[in-house]
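Trying the structure run again after the queue cleared.
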Amino acid sequence: MREFTLIHGCMFAGKTTQLIGLYNESMCSAEEKLAVKPLLDKRYNATTINTHSGIQMLAHRISKAEEIYPLINEMTKEVYIDEVQFFGPFIVEVIGELMMNQIKVVAAGLDKDYMARDFGPMAALKKLATQKIEVKAKCHVCNGNATFTYRKPGNDDLLLVGHTDVYEARCEAHWIEGMKDRIESISQ
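Done. Tokens:
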């Protein structure tokens, strides 16, 4: 069985930067690597995986995890997946199958949603991963270590792709402070 590296953390922690770094450090040729991102992520450029700081690499956009299969060929040795949390529970099976077929997988995703709940398949992916890389951001309020994604008030949809216009990285204390009224209204 091959290895599966999962890069996880809150928004603005550098998950995609790590993913692109591992892609670029790989000894495999471009023909032996496949990079994918969710169709849902329309930020920046449709044909590239992009960091918030402008680093990018070419990628296929797919809407479902099983759309990875037709992109694999006999040369594929590594698969890189950005925003893995958006692919739903079937991504766990797809990654497991890739590993069984001796294909190395590197994926990056948000481990928690803005309500601090496990985001989609992330808990299962953490169990499957042979290597986990947790990255942290700087709290938007105090500049301390941030592990929470705070969504600014105005939209409570679970799936809302955005940038600093919608989200902030926050430490636990400042996340709780910002969410206090929303958590109380949900629990009533």
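The chain has one domain: 4-135. Worth checking whether this holds up in the mutant runs.
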